[in-house]
Specification:
It is a single-pass type II membrane protein. The chain is an alpha/beta fold and 591 residues long. Helices cover 50% and strands 11% of the residues. The strands form 4 sheets. The protein has a 5-stranded parallel beta sheet with strand order 8-7-6-9-10, with helices on both faces.
Length: 591
């Protein structure tokens, strides 16, 4: 085996694999072509049977050689190979697999096992979906505006506008339905499921490695104080930010949570410790961020005041994961946050039982839409008021779309709110819906009783239930809603489009700028619009959900509106550690 590997290294990986494949194909051609030629030329040739028998025997030899090649390749450790060598090895193994399926006469079974989709294909498929949505936002908004601002509108024109709205929404649903069918008809659905699981397993294994060093006393550590002066959602995002910096600096995160305002005994009584082996701040005298030299223990400030700002802050994703993530997911950063929350929010047995009992008692059943209505502390200051009718209009549209695909036994929602009156109001106005929600949780969410165990249990349940739904209708100005959306990414290969926000686009508090890239030129058609050229960076300030977004052109410094479909997202990619040492130590594969 060592002799084989030395020879391979001398010749070169790619050349060796190409040579092996070429030899294999030549043998196959020389074996099969004569058989086919002779069989077609004379079916009465007395030697045909003998030649067929010899061909079958030769094919059996080829199958055996193929298996031997695969065993040799399996014996090659890929842990120390370069990325191009691993890619070449994988490609060769795939070709061997296809050839074996062909020899076995199993071609038809392989047709459905398509190769991985291209990044360009996946990006285009998602862009088509978004553009259909944005086009409908524009058309419906303009028609509604025309109906509402024209006092002397004729009955004929009013009828025509209503017809356009009715037929237009049907057309929009049909287009979205066809795009959804394409997602399954293109043959890549199995790949998406597998790639999602593989990426998650890779990242979770890295988190576990980082958080469980072999020697805690010598490990480099980053200390994060849980008690940031804000609500539960804000505090969760604070811990996520700490974890991002710990991952980026290769430091084990130590979470100081004793005296937590939501639960005095600390995080570890509600969720599992973020480390099984290293929870002590023991080490050299802690210093504040950014530290100096090779200091062992650093205390991290809140994201709002960290200076200098490290490159690992939101909305950055790791460079080594970016190619796979941008192909798989419509919003790679949201997936990245979802993975961190998946690791952090592993429930203790008591918390898991609480959640399971709630699911059973509420009769949680699919299909179901999650609705989060915030009423108390932020409405009128950070967020505008939105009536229940506005939320339910989006819920209705979701179910109208769903019913193109399948029969819905019952339209149901999970309603989370900090005002119990919202639940009773919704039940009175929408008796055709099955509305799941707990008014007692709503009462404990009020500002006066927020920091209590009962309130903590309630918000944990609400976020968990919302994240498990098929679709979210909420306001992204709320951190509760954004966290539910982030966790939702763990239940689907790509849940980036499974929401309807009534106000903001997705954002992360303390983030770096959220930029878009112009893909088409735009000349202002009316006052308040900005000019764009392809390639311009546009700092987005919000989507108005009417076909237009607001932002600043970083080239011209103009601030104003632009057509939402004329930009695409700019993924912020940063060189994080890849943790290759954990695979070298374990002899595994970090791909």
């Amino acid at each position: 085996m060592n002799v084989i590997l030395r020879q391979i290294n001398l010749i070169g990986w790619n050349r060796m694999l190409a040579l092996l494949l070429l030899v294999w194909i030549i043998i196959l051609l020389f074996t099969v072509i004569p058989m086919l030629t002779n069989h077609l030329s004379s079916t009465t040739d007395v030697g045909t049977a003998d030649r067929l028998n010899r061909a079958v025997a030769d094919l059996e030899v080829l199958k055996k050689q193929n298996l031997e090649l695969q065993e040799i390749l399996k014996g090659i450790s890929v842990g120390n190979l370069k990325s191009d060598q691993k890619q070449a090895l994988e490609n060769f193994q795939n070709r061997l697999f296809k050839a074996e399926r062909s020899i076995n006469g199993d071609d038809e079974g392989y047709i459905n096992q398509k190769e991985d989709p291209s990044t360009q294909y996946e990006l285009l498929r998602r862009r088509l979906f978004n553009n259909v949505q944005e086009f409908w936002y524009f058309v419906s908004s303009e028609i509604i505006k025309l109906k509402g601002t024209t006092n002397d509108i004729s009955p004929q024109l009013l009828s025509s506008l209503n017809n356009i709205l009715n037929l237009g929404v049907q057309h929009k649903r049909s287009l979205l339905y066809d795009l959804e069918k394409l997602e399954y008809a293109d043959g890549y659905s199995t790949w998406r499921e597998k790639e999602s699981n593989d990426l998650s397993n890779l990242v979770q294994s890295r988190f576990n490695y980082l958080q469980n060093p072999t020697d805690c006393k010598k490990a480099k550590k980053l200390i994060c104080n849980l008690n940031k002066g804000c609500g539960y959602g804000c505090q969760l995002h604070h811990v996520v930010y700490c974890f991002m910096v710990a991952y980026g600096t290769q430091r084990t995160l130590i979470l100081k949570s004793k005296g937590w305002r939501y639960h005095k005994a600390g995080w570890e009584e509600i969720f599992k410790p973020i480390s099984d082996s290293c929870t002590s701040t023991e080490g050299e005298t802690p210093v504040n961020w950014p530290g100096y030299g090779n200091v062992q223990v650093i205390t991290l400030p809140i994201i709002d005041s960290i200076s200098p700002r490290p490159p690992f802050l939101p909305l950055a994703i790791p460079e080594d994961l970016a190619p796979r993530l941008t192909r798989l997911h419509g919003d790679p950063f949201v997936w990245w946050v979802g993975q961190i929350l998946k690791y952090l929010l592993r429930p203790q047995d008591k918390t898991a039982t609480l959640i399971q009992n709630a699911i059973t008692n509420l009769g949680f059943k699919r299909p179901i839409v999650g609705v989060h209505v915030r009423r108390t502390d932020k409405v009128g200051t950070e967020a505008a008021f939105h009536g229940i009718e506005e939320y339910m209009s989006a819920v209705d549209e979701y179910y109208n779309q769903l019913e193109l695909k399948k029969k819905v036994d019952k339209r149901r929602i999970y309603l989370a709110t900090d005002d119990p009156k919202v639940i009773s109001d919704a039940k009175n106005k929408y008796p055709q819906y099955e509305i799941l929600g707990d008014p007692t949780i709503s009462k404990t969410a009020a500002v006066s009783s927020r920091y209590s165990d009962t309130s903590l249990n309630g918000i944990i349940l609400d976020i968990h239930m919302l994240s498990m739904t098929d679709y979210l209708v909420c306001t992204f100005s709320s951190q509760v809603c954004r966290i539910a959306y982030e966790i939702m990414q763990n239940y689907y290969p790509d849940a980036a489009a499974k929401f309807r926000s009534l106000d903001d686009v997705y954002y992360y508090g303390g983030q770096t700028s959220n930029n878009k890239v112009a893909v088409a030129s735009h000349e202002p058609l009316k006052s308040g619009e900005i000019q764009m050229k392809p390639g311009d960076l546009i700092g987005i300030a919000g989507n108005h959900w009417n076909g237009y977004s607001k932002g600043r052109n970083l080239r011209t410094n103009q601030m104003g509106l632009y057509p939402s479909f004329k930009v695409k997202s700019k993924i912020e990619v940063v060189k994080f550690p890849s943790y290759s040492e954990m695979y070298n130590n374990q002899g595994g594969d970090d791909s």
